[in-house]
Amino acid sequence: MIDQLLQMSIIVGIITTGVRLATPFLLAALGEMFDQRAGVYNLGVEGIMMMGAFVGFWVALRSGSPWWGILAAIAVGIFMGLLMGFISITLQAEQGISGIGLYMFGVGLAGYLFRITVGYITGIEGFQPISIPYLSDIPILGQILFNHNWMVYFAFLMVPVSWFVLFKTTWGLKIRSAGMTPEAADTLGLSVVAIRYTCLVIGSIAAALAGAFLTLGHTNMYADNISAGRGFIAVALVYFGRWSPWGILGGALFFSLVDALQLWVQVLGLQIPYEFAVMAPYVLTILALTVAARQIWGPAALGKPFNREGD
């Protein structure tokens, strides 16, 4: 049994699958990182992913183009981000409760719309792999890294871009100030509310794209619960990665490789109960957070509503 997993072709297949499966984790977790860096945590990521997955799929099905699906998913992300902002920033509802509400709203609405507009499982033409010239010809490494569709490349590119924006630009400094010392940021003339709204919209667009990847760049179909808890794992990855894009990258690859391993275990028909294989990524999420929580640090004003003096 173990001999099969140790074959070079199987190892390369597992790593290649893991790199592709890291895409939704990366997109959703990097977006959530911006939310939390600004002082707002959004537990509705899973619901936004489901809405992005369905709307992206449905528009691609009707239009015949996955690119229209991507644009529709972005629009959904903007709407869901503004909705979360209105509830948690303007109305100052408890962020955990409003996030759970957004999750239930997104999952329920996506399932309802699917049943009344499509109602059956059908496939679409999603994004095809793009082989990077010359790099894809590198033995082993070329297959693992340079034979994916554009959404995979985009997700990995967002890691250094997010790091640069967050730590090397004035706007990134403003985001961190809003999450650490919003009163000081307000004293300097920064609009904490505007910064938090902007980050929520960006984070929600990223979550919607993560969902759209599942239907347009991975399975090329839609089904209930297609996100399968990835939104919640993405939120956990922000803590696991300690609010750093590079830490999130490491965590995303770790969990996606475990996910890829359980898929290959099923494909190869190894004598491991299916349920244990499926549970593995989620069990590891709990264990990793248990260890990481011992030395956790984060934005000081995370989850705290901001009130200007006198408002």
Describe this structure in words.
The relative contact order is 0.21. The protein is mainly α. It has helices spanning 2-5, 8-37, 45-63, 66-90, 95-117, 141-145, 150-168, 170-180, 182-187, 192-218, 230-240, 245-268, 274-292; strands at 130-131, 147-148. It is globular, with a radius of gyration of 20 Å. It contains 13 helices and 2 strands. Helices cover 72% and strands 1% of the residues. Helix 7 packs across helix 8 (170-180). The chain has a two-stranded antiparallel sheet with strand order 1-2.
Considering the chains and any ligands shown, give keywords for the structure:
single chain, 311 residues, mainly alpha, two-stranded antiparallel ribbon, 2 strands
- Report strand %: under 5%
The main sheet comes to: 2 strands, antiparallel
Radius of gyration: 20 Å
**Shape, per Cα inertia axes:** globular
Structural class: mainly alpha
The beta-strand count equals 2
Number of helices: 13
Low-confidence stretches: none
Q: How far apart are the termini? A: 66 Å
Q: Order of helices and strands, N to C? A: HHHHHEHEHHHHHHH
The strand line-up of the biggest sheet is 1-2
Question: Helical amount among residues, as a percent range?
Answer: over 70%
Mean pLDDT, rounded to whole units? Answer: 90
